[in-house]
Amino acid sequence: MILNKRFFEKPTLEVAKGLLGCYLVNGKTVGKIVETEAYLFDDPASHSFKGKTKRNDKMFGEAGKAYIYFNYGMYHCFNVVTNVTGKGEAVLIRALEPLEGIEIMKNMRCKEKILDLCSGPAKLVIALGISKEQNGCDLLNGKLRIEEGNEEKFEIGKGKRIGISKGKELKYRFFIKGNEFV
DNA sequence: GTCCTGATCCTCT
DNA sequence: GAGGATCAGGACG
Known about the structure:
single chain, eight-stranded antiparallel sheet, 4 helices, globular, DNA-binding
């Protein structure tokens, strides 16, 4: 099931929680989202905090689009734009549980262990073969998309975000409690 | 297992 | 000219 655009237009913290258990699909590779982080417009850790630039302009676009950025000189990270167009909020996908196309992921990552394939924001981008050319593309349908998960129940864990220097105290990180791929 | 470091480069100031 | 929403590999215990 493809998600409705209105799902992504909800408040960003709700979308960050709602995305847990959903499937991130790129071509033949599929992973279940098990860990996310929210980045808000008034949040010093967010790329959008200081206003719109060429680098982050996709983050100010329509809900349900991809925002993919390059950093640390060698990695890309994948975000979903949320809330109202122009607000500049997004959810970073931090980890996936690999479901389909696992052989492709192993190839892309040059790793054999399933646990190593998608256990980090840059890793999952490599494993699914997501490229910077997909920045700004629509996630509602298309090669790169997000689908609704099954109805399984799980507890949502909450904590501080990882790897940032500002806004450290905000508990905008969400994950599926007990899932070993987090 | 944990801790530490080096790689590497685009973007904004 | 600095720094960043990271990762892999090595040292050590």
